[in-house]
Amino acid sequence: MRLALLTDLHANREALAACLEHARAQKADRYAFTGDFVGYGADPAWVVDTVREYVAQGAIAVQGNHDLSVTQPTRPQMHMEAREVIEWTRGRLDREQLDFLAGLPLTAELDKHFFVHASAHEPQRWAYVDCAEEAEKSLKAARGARIVFSGHVHAPALYRRADDGRMGSHVPLPDVRIPLAPQHQYLVLPGAVGQPRDGNCAACYAIYDDATRELTCFRVPYDHGAAARRVIAAGLPIVFAMRLIEGI
């Protein structure tokens, strides 16, 4: 199975379409979407409908914090601009789309693979897995899974918990196949499709091949200028257009 891993789509139609086309060319035969389908971007309905179509065909999808927020009163922890987009997004989704987001699980499992938007340790708290300590907590909470796939941090990273308990981390390079040893446990952050924040505006996603046990991360150029113009045309905060252009 060649599993395409896409996270943090953030209502970015251009980025998602480019990544899905790229994944098809890479012969992905299953898809996993690890949350935050809405928020920040200007095309929430198209993105939600696209994810729904893939789920209907057998894809895995879990809920992100923006997906939850759009289905209930906005959390005060969100900064003002993000709350503005969430409130705008509610008015662009119909009942079926909102029900789909509300009904998504926080976690999913497939064989020895575990899927979650943030951390497997108390996933409802939306903790950022941005260091080895947080990665270890997530891996220990993942009910014996050998690989945890998540998102939320908007930058690609790979953490390894060796069979002796030692932790290591690595920033994967694009298009480089990384073998994952069966005796170790891994946490994979494929980076954001819809709003990368590592200084590179190209969309991120990854493919895991369970036959060869290889992970490959990809950077997919797309028309980020068009996506940014959609944000501005929708009247959303300009900071979210600038993030698409600058990749931060």
Automatic annotation (TrEMBL):
- Which InterPro entries does this entry report, sorted A to Z? Ap4A_hydrolase (IPR050126), Calcineurin-like_PHP_lpxH (IPR024654), Metallo-depent_PP-like (IPR029052), Pesterase_MJ0912 (IPR011152)
From what superkingdom does this record's organism come? Answer: Bacteria
What GO molecular function terms would the record report? phosphatase activity
Q: Which residues form the Calcineurin-like phosphoesterase domain?
A: 1-209
Q: Name one GO cellular component term.
A: cytoplasm
Q: Which Pfam families match?
A: Metallophos_2
Q: Which PANTHER family match?
A: BLL5683 PROTEIN (PTHR42850:SF2), METALLOPHOSPHOESTERASE (PTHR42850)
Family statement drawn from the similarity comment of this UniProt entry: Belongs to the metallophosphoesterase superfamily. YfcE family.
**Record's protein name:** Metallophosphoesterase
Organism encoding this protein: Zemynaea arenosa
